[in-house]
């Protein structure tokens, strides 16, 4: 079955960086677009970044443009989110996601940005 496993979250100071990873299995990873979402406490889950299957197209929510970079390694069935210039408002649980007969989610990884 589809499995998405995120890792790389943690506690970081404002201005710092983190790199999230999402290992995918159970489907033809190289044929599907991938997304990163996040959910902050008390808020709805929001889309953060998207990458198409061949890494030709990427897109970002305005609040992270110029700071976050989504990428993928189809040989490793892994999608990444490089986050630079982190701000306290980036604090959230980050999820990777794929659209395969419905939206599929990982378990999430916590990112906390605090002095």
Would you kindly provide a written description of the structure presented here, covering whatever features stand out?
The model has no long low-confidence stretch (mean pLDDT 97). It is built from no helices and eleven strands. With 115 residues, it is mainly beta.
Secondary structure topology:
Elements: E1 3-7, E2 10-12, E3 18-25, E4 34-39, E5 46-51, E6 58-60, E7 68-73, E8 78-83, E9 92-99, E10 103-105, E11 109-113
Keywords summarizing the entry:
11 strands; four-stranded antiparallel beta sheet; 51% strand; seven-stranded mixed beta sheet; globular; mainly beta; 115 residues; single chain
Reported for the largest beta sheet, the result is: 7 strands, mixed
Radius of gyration: 13 Å
| Annotation, overall tally of beta strands | 11
Which term fits the overall shape? globular
Give average pLDDT, whole number: 97
Poorly predicted regions? none
Sheet/helix structural class: mainly beta
The total of helices stands at: 0
The separation of the N and C termini measures: 40 Å
Q: How much of the polypeptide forms β-strand, as a percent range? A: over 45%
Q: Helix and strand succession?
A: EEEEEEEEEEE
Helix amount: under 10%
């Amino acid at each position: 079955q589809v499995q998405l496993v995120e890792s790389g979250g943690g506690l970081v100071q404002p201005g710092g960086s983190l790199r999230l990873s999402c290992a995918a299995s159970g489907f033809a990873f190289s044929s599907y677009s991938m997304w990163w979402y996040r959910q902050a406490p008390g808020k709805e889950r929001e889309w953060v970044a998207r990458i198409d299957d061949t890494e030709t197209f990427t897109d970002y929510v305005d609040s992270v443009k110029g700071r976050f970079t989504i990428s993928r390694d189809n040989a490793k069935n892994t999608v990444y989110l490089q986050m630079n210039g982190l701000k306290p408002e980036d604090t959230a649980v980050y999820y990777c996601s794929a659209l395969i007969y419905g939206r599929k989610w990982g378990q999430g990884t916590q990112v906390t940005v605090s002095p």
